[in-house]
Amino acid sequence: MKHVMVFVLHHARVMRHSSSMALRRTPESESTGRNAPSVEAAFQAAPEELMAEILEGELHLGPRPARLVRVSAGVGRMKYYELERDPSPHYTGNLNAKHTWWLPGVESCPVCDLQPEGGTSAQYPRVDLSALSSEEQKKLSSAWPVPREEFIRRRELVRPLAPPHAVLESGAAFGPLQGTGVGYFGQLVMQNPWSLCMRLEALERIRNAPELRDIQLETHGRFHPDCLPPPNPPCPTCGVAMGHGVPDPYWLDASSLPPHVDIFRLADASTLIIANERLVDAVHRLELDGVVFKELEAR
Length: 299
Ligand SMILES: [Zn+2]
Known about the structure:
Blueprint: H1 28-31, H2 37-44, E1 50-55, E2 58-63, H3 66-72, E3 80-85, E4 94-98, E5 101-102, E6 123-124, H4 134-139, H5 148-158, E7 173-174, E8 178-182, E9 188-192, E10 195-199, E11 212-214, E12 219-220, E13 251-252, E14 263-266, E15 273-276, H6 277-285, E16 291-298
Parallel strand pairs: 6-7, 12-14, 13-16
Antiparallel strand pairs: 1-2, 3-15, 3-16, 4-8, 5-7, 9-10, 10-11, 14-15
Bound molecules: zinc ion.
Zinc ion binds next to loops.
């Protein structure tokens, strides 16, 4: 089994003049969020002793650090970490940027005041909706709540253009993150706890917006049931049950954690980005800065 650092990156850049950006069409492999089959095949065929990464749709191979070999050999139990922005004061970077398209909110139930169809902080920067009509794209650029039927209609417009794992709920964002950035950014950037970007260049450019890419994460993993409050009963009218906030402290359900990716968005709380120790090792080895890792308990 290959243990690799899989950053699924997209190709968009944070532009200094977003208003001048025309919507771009991308090759099929980009718009579906998948890599070319030949690249995927080469990735799968990568020698066990090498570390394989797919970046920008291209396969990169490098020597596997000794520590990763030891971990992947099953010595010890995998550790998991929550990613947080490094609070050090010199990370002054601030993004004024947003994604191109959104799934809107849904008008709330008149009985319970909850929104049906769920909600998510998931972001899919590699999903390209520019093939839709300009009228539909305009509708998908607004997060304003709409009737449930209209939400479902828009969601089903997006579905064929999104990867199979995409969480298509209110608040899901698609397309390149575009806007401006000022201040000092680390190599890894978290504008908020649910958004992770990575610098394209190590070169420090204090006065210019650095070229950042946001990272398209799969959604996996559950809280351990022992840290959750009892579930609320569903509303008899809309069937939605009041959810719960992130338990404090929380534990992960070890059996729900994905073996095939080293960083993911937590399915039970889409505002949380979780990495395993293989990714943390790689970040430390590559001396990437800007985020800190809080160790979690997985049971
Ligand atoms: Zn209701």
